[in-house]
Write a structure and sequence with these properties.
The protein has 378 residues and is an all-alpha fold. It has helices at residues 2-10, 18-38, 43-64, 67-71, 74-91, 111-129, 137-155, 160-176, 181-202, 212-222, 229-245, 275-307, 312-336, 354-372; strands at 93-95, 98-103, 108-109. It has one domain. Helices cover 68% and strands 3% of the residues. It has a 3-stranded antiparallel β-sheet, covered by helices on one side.
Length: 378
């Protein structure tokens, strides 16, 4: 008890990032209202509200527990992550051809959402521990292998979209951790032609690289004359129509407009990955702008906290979480506005999903604790 009291005394509560808390709760509450409007059943609204309450409890707890103490257990988090991903592979609940969930009875846990946080925690410690040797072959190889194992397990679910996000998070953390520009240049020199060749192979008939539904999404996006194009592009085309119909102020939440894309059930599962199109239709350009601005503010606060962290681990932790929110938001909105092929990713703090929401609040709690221990500003 004395240790806890001493730890709390050392915190600089005047530096607690209150703004981050406000932006996160405001965005989540906005999301709950849009989820309520997007669905006929009140179940989703109640569950997401419960997720907000649980998330706030977790956020406060982690905000008061030193992130340096949490990071001591980075290997335990790593193996918990692997255990959950293996559990999904062996006995996961399957939906629409993918096994990504563990059925716990009262709710379904999606381990890949927590993988993002576990990877951020693990590599915050790993890169801090080897910050002076990060550009040596052995340390680089170790990082790639340790990252590659959970990445492969997520890919096998299959979950390509989440795999892309955690890969981008990893790249961001490696860069912030001090990866040499020479190595980055060398990687790009190899990666760019490799990606070009890979894309060429993927677009060939009878390719074995992607799952059939993944292949159809890409081909359907780029080739509207393809026989699968209409079915694949159906969701995105209706999403664009919904956003466009919202105009400046939108049609209002819970509206009964007969011309509503949502009311016509033209968007399946609108409370999840395509929640942004509901924002566009019912809250208009103003609502979409508000969501994007709140996401940008959350990312900015995480980066600001990371810049003023007392150590490299805290800085990498904050930048890693900023990358999670930033890349996932960017991909989700690009999908909903049909700028890239359809891929399933929730919009942070807005889309329905307890696993996603809880994992995000864990990240916020860790960032808040970093702010409590920041170095003195000049």
């Amino acid at each position: 008890m004395g240790l806890i009291v001493n730890t709390l005394k050392n915190y600089q509560f005047r530096h607690l990032n209150i703004r981050l808390i406000i932006w996160v709760i405001a965005l989540t509450v906005l999301g709950i209202n849009v989820i309520s409007s997007a669905t006929e059943s009140s179940t989703y609204e109640y569950k997401q509200t419960l997720g907000l309450v649980m998330g706030c409890v977790v956020m406060v707890m982690l905000g008061l527990i030193s992130y340096k103490f949490v990071l001591r257990f980075y290997w335990i988090f790593y193996f918990i992550n692997l255990a959950l991903l293996i559990w999904v592979k062996l006995a996961g609940a399957e939906k629409k051809g993918a096994a990504r969930w563990i059925d716990l009875g009262f709710f379904q846990l999606q381990p890949s959402e927590f993988t993002k946080i576990f990877i951020i925690i693990f590599f915050a410690v790993y890169l801090n521990k080897f910050k002076d040797k990060i550009n040596t072959p052995m340390i680089l190889a170790g990082a790639v292998i340790l990252f590659g194992i959970p990445l492969a397990l997520v890919l096998k679910q299959p979950d390509l979209s989440t795999s892309i996000v955690i890969a981008l998070i990893f790249c961001t953390m490696m860069y912030i951790g001090g990866l040499s520009y020479k190595i980055i240049g060398g990687i790009l020199a190899v990666a760019i032609p490799t990606v070009i060749v890979l894309v060429y192979l993927i677009l060939q008939p009878n390719q074995k690289i992607l799952e059939t539904y993944q292949y159809n999404r890409i081909v359907g996006f780029y080739d509207e004359n393809n026989e699968v194009a209409d079915a694949i592009s159906y969701q995105q085309n209706n999403s664009i129509m919904a956003i466009g119909s919202g105009g400046l102020w939108g049609k209002g939440l819970n509206n009964n407009t007969t011309t509503s894309v949502k009311n016509g059930n033209y968007i399946s599962e609108p409370q999840t990955d395509f929640i942004f199109c509901i924002v566009g239709e019912e809250l208009g350009f103003v609502g979409c702008s508000a969501v994007i601005i709140l996401l940008a503010l959350i990312i900015f606060e995480c980066i600001w906290t990371g810049i003023h962290a007392v150590d490299t681990a805290g800085m990498i932790l904050c930048f890693g979480f900023a990358a999670l929110v930033g890349f996932q938001s960017f991909i989700n909105i690009c999908v909903v506005t049909k700028m890239i092929p359809n891929t399933g990713l929730p919009l942070p703090f807005v889309s329905y999903g307890l696993s996603s929401l809880l994992s995000l609040f864990i990240g916020v709690g860790l960032v808040l604790n970093v702010s409590l221990q920041q170095k003195k500003l000049i």
